[in-house]
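FAQ

Q: What does a record look like?
A: Structure on top, sequence underneath. For example:
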């Protein structure tokens, strides 16, 4: 019997296995890269929120 279960068009062998491994690795790398960009976006957004709160606090502080 050739191929995976339900896939007689795919040949058995190391080439097919390596292709599947490469595709899985590429998909995981894409997911990880997307997570990094989301983390960077949230981090930069958070830094700006903190900066605006600090600016508000300084400009509205009572004068001595």
């Amino acid at each position: 019997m050739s191929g995976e279960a339900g896939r007689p068009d795919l040949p058995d062998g190391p080439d097919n296995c390596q292709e599947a491994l490469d595709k899985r690795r590429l998909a995981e790398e894409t997911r990880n890269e997307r997570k990094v960009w989301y983390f960077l976006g949230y981090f930069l957004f958070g830094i700006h929120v903190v900066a605006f709160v600090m600016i508000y606090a300084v400009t509205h502080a009572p004068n001595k």
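Q: Is there anything notable about this one?
A: The radius of gyration is 26 Å.
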